[in-house]
Amino acid sequence: MKQFEHRIGFRQRHAHTIAHPARSARPRPAALPLGFGNILLPAIVIADLKASGPLYRKGSTMRSIQPMLSALCVLLLIAGLAPAQTSQAGSGGFFSGFTRPYRTQEIPPVNLANSSRLESLLRAGRIYLSLQDAVALALENNLDIAVQRYNPMIANASLLRAEAGGLLRGVPTAVQRATTSALAQATGGAGGAGGGTTTAATTTGGGETGGAIIVQTGTAIPNLDPVVFTQANFSHRTSPQSNSFTTGTNALILRNDVVNFGIQKGFITGTTVSFGWNNSMLETNAGRSDFNPSTTASFSLSIQQPLLRGFGLAVNTRNIRIAKNNQRVSDLAFRQQVISTVSAIVSAYWDLVSFNENVRVKQQALALAQKLYEDNKKQVEIGTLAPIEIVRAEAEVASSQQALTQAETQLLQQETLLKNALSRTGVASPLIAEARLVPTDRIYVPSTEPITPIQELIEMAMKNRPDVTQAEIQIQNTKLGLQGSRNNLLPQLDLVADFRNNALVGQINRLPIPAVPGTGIGPTPRNPNAVDPFFIGGYGKALTQLFARNFPDYAIGFQLNIPLRNRSAQADMVLDQLSLRQQELRHQALLNQVRVDVRNALIAVQQARAAYEAAV
Q1: pLDDT at position 208, please?
Q2: pLDDT on residue 361
Q3: CA-CA to 454 of 20 to 30 Å: which in 73, 206, 277, 611?
Q4: What is the mean pLDDT for each group of 10 consecutive residues in the chain (616 residues)?
């Protein structure tokens, strides 16, 4: 993509001449602060500071921006030290608090032990189970609920990642609906007694969970965690020189030690601030240098502030707000999983009661068929009944026996499904697998059902169903993501400001001044009085120059980056808007389905009442 880049900068070099010797009798400035927080300068540096000579006068321009620079430096230092100080206040001490961000936070292993309630209900090979016990066991042991318990922790970790400026990884909101009724399975078929599961899966937060795909568009968010960096380099180099005039030797030897420190942090306004402390010590065999060895140091402060793309709190906090919404979504998904599981357990329990009653009825029917067979057989023997009636009675006995076998099979399957739903290890334990479930509650049919207007039932469903609220939050998240895509359409215009304080110190070069070829002038001893004493000293004097801002640099400018066609940003904006429209339609479809579910449930209750009254 063609881009048009333009950079306009203003850079000013500001340096003063050495104070007049006549002014050297003036009192020195007040002592400079020697520490930041808990960081103190070494005693040798303090002594060197006290021994420093007169300082250069400060420029009025730099003096006017001194409060701003000081505030930014302190802010960066506090941002880097605050987590360590907070951790130090904890129980682990300073070292533990300092290393905590770099240690793995171990998640406890999965607990596959069942709650003690299940064993307390087991007596003489039978599990005497009430509906209340079944619901309690499901809440304690059901694996679908146990899986869903991790999702709020995933949402919390995603929020932590968003607060650091990282990409969202999404929060799973899949709700498992297990098959807990033997009526849904084929006897002896592929369905088996293990039961299947159906999944209502959705993903929030702009990512696809369970895979490596992370879908997130829009303006990039700066790294909100402070980053401390350092560099140390110690080198020794020897290089031949074709011309000895510049260095005074044809074999130049350099020893260069570099130690740099810095800290960088991004802010939710889009601002990126970087503070650097650079140091370089040079020792050489070049005779033309006034100082040998010499040390250069600098303090640098760089500020980059987006003015169009990436500007503003709304754009740079969108992931944090989405992550907070995802916390609500994960709580709602957990609630929906509990509702779904408890509803399935209640249905499975009453199915178990019904299957037990069905077995009892089929046993009575078989007993009646066998009695009829014996009666018909006696009547045929005495000649009062035709022999064909024995055949009919035998067929009735066989049919009743088959019906009883099917009823007992359904009952065993239902017990297996229910035990699998109420235990963490399913039927892996022989004690649980062989135990028979004995329901202690019986179906009670009220004489009448409370009459509630259908519209009130629908409003209650709209208000209380977690999936409806999840869909609404997902629409909110998509709109928040649209803010990033819309902002990404803008050109990139950044304000850039650089501030630097420089320092140079060293010792007088003890090497003689090299001869000048062709002049007949040989090597001459160096006159110490010809060297500016302001630069003579150790690192403490370099710090004095830095804090006094004797040699400041400052620059301000802007960077402009204009994509000429901007097709990628346009496509992202269109795709996000289409996704929003799809979610709005899905939300409406969900509302329609809620109304259908409520009406169908009411119709089912009315039909069940009619069937019950017809049966009794």
Answers
A1: 34
A2: 95
A3: 611
A4: 37 37 37 35 38 39 44 48 44 74 89 92 93 95 94 94 91 81 59 41 40 63 94 92 76 92 96 96 86 94 96 94 94 95 94 95 95 92 88 94 95 94 91 93 87 93 95 94 94 96 92 70 75 90 94 96 94 95 96 97 92 86
Q: State both tokens at 439.
A: 């329901």
- Could you give the CA distance from residue 538 to residue 381 in angstroms, rounded to a whole number? 130
Phi, psi of 84 (to 5 degrees): -65, -40
Q: State the Cα–Cα distance between residues 260 and 298, nearest whole angstrom.
A: 10
Q: How much is the pLDDT for 525?
A: 79
Phi, psi of 270 (to 5 degrees): 95, -5
User: Could you tell me if 214 and 168 are in contact, meaning their C-beta atoms sit under 8 angstroms apart?
Assistant: yes
Q: What are φ and ψ of residue 31, in 5° steps?
A: -60, 145
Backbone angles phi, psi at 140, to 5 degrees: -85, -35
Is the backbone peptide bond immediately before 109 cis, with ω within 30 degrees of 0? Answer: no
Q: Where are the beta strands (DSSP E) in 78-146?
A: 122-123, 126-129
- pLDDT score at 438: 95
Report phi then psi at 2, rounded to 5: -70, 140
Alpha-carbon distance of 253 to 331, in angstroms, equals 68
Local structure of 56: helix, strand or coil: coil
Between β-strands 436-439 and 126-129, what pairing exists: parallel, antiparallel or unpaired?
Answer: parallel
- What's the one-letter identity of residue 407? A
Spatial CA neighbour of 294 closest among 283, 310, 285, 304: 283
DSSP code of 450? Answer: -
Give residue 281's pLDDT: 96
Q: What would the two tokens of residue 130 be?
A: 């009430």
Asked if residue 278 lies in contact with residue 302, where contact means CB atoms within 8 angstroms, the answer is no
Structure tokens at 254: 């350099």
CA distance linking residue 421 with residue 345, whole number of Å: 8
For tokens 């936070």, the residue is: 105
The end-to-end CA distance of the chain, in Å, is 80
Residues 6+ apart with CB under 8 A from 421: 138, 142, 178, 180, 195, 341, 344, 345, 348
Task: Give the Å distances, CA to CA, from 570 to 102, 174, 505.
Answer: 40, 32, 55
H helices present in 164-286, as ranges: 244-247
3-class secondary-structure state, position 40: strand
State how far the Cα of 222 lies from the Cα of 303, in Å rounded to an integer: 13
Model pLDDT, residue 47: 39
Q: Which residues of 283-308 are buried (b: 16+ CB within 10 A; e: fewer)?
A: bbbbbbbbbbebbbbbbbbbbbbbbb
| DSSP summary character for residue 20 | P
Give the count of beta carbons closer than 10 Å to the beta carbon of residue 146: 15
* Residues in CB range of 540: below 8 A, 6 or more apart: 44, 45, 46, 47, 48, 49, 50, 51, 52
Identify the sign of the CA torsion 498, 501, 506, 511. positive
Query: Residue 50's pLDDT is what?
Result: 41
In this prediction, residue 25 carries a pLDDT of 38
Note whether 15 and 55 are within 8 A (CB).
Answer: no
Distance from chain centroid for Cα 83: 19
pLDDT score recorded for residue 528: 78
